[in-house]
């Protein structure tokens, strides 16, 4: 139902939040200043694994401006254990996760003491005066070694293995037995890939302010999840949920990195309670990199069974996933989110997925843009290329042979998912045309024949993903502790303006703009007349927040339902006002009219009538507000075809992306400008995994890439001008037809880049190169050497901190 | 930024700055553009007792024609170096290397002299200064002294500037009509060089009359590739001669050694062409 003459949905609206975000005329958590506010600084362990023998705070306590110095022992009785909401198996091992270490530290960067002082400088000064005696323990860093249980991260558990989770198509009844397919296969390929550890790198560092006054704890936090945070803080402490109000003001990015209940949020809350005064904590970038959760870090052993004609018959996935030292909010479930995606867009007869989660003495891992799905997509798209090479077939032809045809939707996969819609042929045809595939193949041949120093490669990624987290019954079946619904409210104000309250929690996505477009269309009101409220548990009392490309498909649907409830009631009242039968009322462009007459009332007239309530139909309540909560029946499944051409300088190993085409099918597009922005940013982040980013630890467990001089986040200067366009197969599982776009670019791009680099140098004897494909790694591989070479780094802070990621 | 406490001083002349340095003792630090020192302060890797901010010393800014050479004030920003006509005409290599420094924000704040004094072996201006035989003019309690670049860089983050002294100007001989190129390999635009090569070549009648080659980030300081230079002089300006000479560049072993040769070849090729 479109109510305005010119539909808002589909319009490339500039974002209404941008002016205030770009000029800083807004409230970031660290900007908040409260009367009497104190500042918290956190002392972090410099060692990765040790018993704490003694902490001497006496010097620090005596320093000027210091109000209080506390250790984990001081908080032991009240800090509880940080929540893990996803016990993936009944026998999962879950060690206590204190916000501040009490007697043992398990990763370098773990909080061991805190200082509360009258300003942030004095708090930081006092940290240096705290003396901690450590008895160092053997450090467990390597994922493949950790699984052998030689040294243990948590000796009380008796093992480093946290849990093993299995999906088997023969057991589930969704396919045949993979071992049979492997035994009977004409071709069996086995490869091992490493998903390096990544750091989410949100722009705004984490920050918390807790105000304990007025018999209520008001918590401002740079978080993605104000609602979950409120629930979990009350579940972790003895503070009742109704005595906690969480506000996520404007939040500068998250990428999953702020989908967390952090130690510092809990410590700030407890410190404010103890002091009876507001307390603020804001991290430095280095603190963020060494203590906020990391992403990825898996070893993937993949076995693929196929026939000589290119038909894939079976896929076996054996994963080791690094949890780091503790289980954070959804750590154990991240690799499991990939379990349903390894089969991707293909029709395989058999599938088995086994993931073992493992503890190490590193920063805990958890959600990072894509969360499980980038790993799955990388593995299968790399394997499809490997199969093409093995069989001497064109890599696109082999994908086409195996993918689900557009007429076969809805299609239930070997992993048990039902894909509602898609058209892989259409997206691929468009991408091939924009890319100039044949011409590039010809140039590649010429360069190979010439023995050119710069070789050309072409990489393909035909991806899909599951978005719209999530049907609550599915989450329940996966042992997740919460539901996956979303909620929205519409408040019709007496002047005809509209307040929208959403349970989603935007942190850069542009929900205020998109939600306004949806409501403007639905209610026939001007875009400018809609205000979107979010991120405050006092105003949006209910919500499941923003992550997993869920906000539009789940939260947007709740919003549509709320708008429809407003209209349904308004239609009744309009009929009453116009003294006609409700069946004769028509609604268009924000106005109700009696069919076949000129009698009409605007929505504003009707809302005012509802508000003053002078003359309502029998039994109708005053007001024109509505709430709706939507629990999806299914996930949504965006897909697309990404093509990447890289030039590889064989003399230096340098990789340059020459062209990149992304054709995405994200269903209906509400705002194409925002979708383009999401795709561009997503591509940058996925390309960064392929070429640039890696969290590196030295042999003692110290993170050596703890600054942006060492952890290489690319800028626009390092990326090509992307060619992006879309095909559209609307989702059938929500009224908007939307599928989600927040993670698509990140999921699709990593294998496209790596496939293209390997395609450029495969004829020179290179079979694989470990990510990130640094020039040194590429060059070393070309010399016939180990693909995982790394040497000391260089430069500036990189020189001071001599083993970072510069090189 | 949460640095440790420090005293902040703002001299208005070089003499006053030198006096302040003497008064504040060896834990005082000069701050110029702050592009290297501020990150170090933020991370509390250093905690100077006093910062003497010389950004107000206008006598240290600008590029002046001094006959056979240019006199470049130590506080001249990278941005100013990039746009200066004298540098473009007489010390092109310096401009080309400066073009590759970090990002526009850093180039607007960072200074030529500050970069040389920081002496990060991966810094882009050290090798050009060495290759071009720059002379550093240093002010101290006993007046001014001049130190050639070959003696100025004393190792990893170390220079000939003694406690109590300030680099005031850099004298760079003129190289009119020389071709130049700075060939840099780094992983992302704002990252430091893995290896870079600074090359300036004078070609007369198809023959290489003179050559200057400096290497960035292959040792504790910038390295002058004298073997490469001597192999070039008197040779025809051909691809073969350049390739032959570039083989004499070295940087220990492995990847960097390879880069030294490859990038030297590329820098010389571009310098000859330019």
From TrEMBL, chain A:
Renumbered to this chain, region (Disordered) spans 785-807
Give the domain of life: Bacteria
Q: Which residues form the Aldehyde oxidase/xanthine dehydrogenase a/b hammerhead domain?
A: 23-138
Membrane-spanning intervals of the chain: none
State a single Pfam family of this protein: MoCoBD_1
Alphabetically sorted, this entry's keywords are:
Molybdenum, Oxidoreductase
List the protein's name: Carbon-monoxide dehydrogenase large subunit
What is the protein's species of origin? Lentzea atacamensis
From TrEMBL, chain B:
* SMART domains for the chain: CO_deh_flav_C
Give the FAD-binding PCMH-type domain ranges.
1-177
Q: Name one Pfam family in it.
A: FAD_binding_5
Asked whether the UniProt record includes Oxidoreductase among its keywords, one would answer yes
Q: Write down what this protein is called.
A: Carbon-monoxide dehydrogenase medium subunit
Q: Which organism is it from?
A: Lentzea atacamensis
Database matches in InterPro entries = CO_DH_flav_C (IPR005107), CO_DH_flav_C_dom_sf (IPR036683), Diverse_Substr_Oxidored (IPR051312), FAD-bd_PCMH (IPR016166), FAD-bd_PCMH-like_sf (IPR036318), FAD-bd_PCMH_sub1 (IPR016167), FAD-bd_PCMH_sub2 (IPR016169), Mopterin_DH_FAD-bd (IPR002346)
UniProt entry keywords in alphabetical sequence: FAD, Flavoprotein, Oxidoreductase
Keyword Flavoprotein belongs to the record = yes
**What SUPFAM superfamilies does the entry give?**
CO dehydrogenase flavoprotein C-terminal domain-like, FAD-binding/transporter-associated domain-like
PANTHER family (UniProt xref) = XANTHINE DEHYDROGENASE SUBUNIT C-RELATED
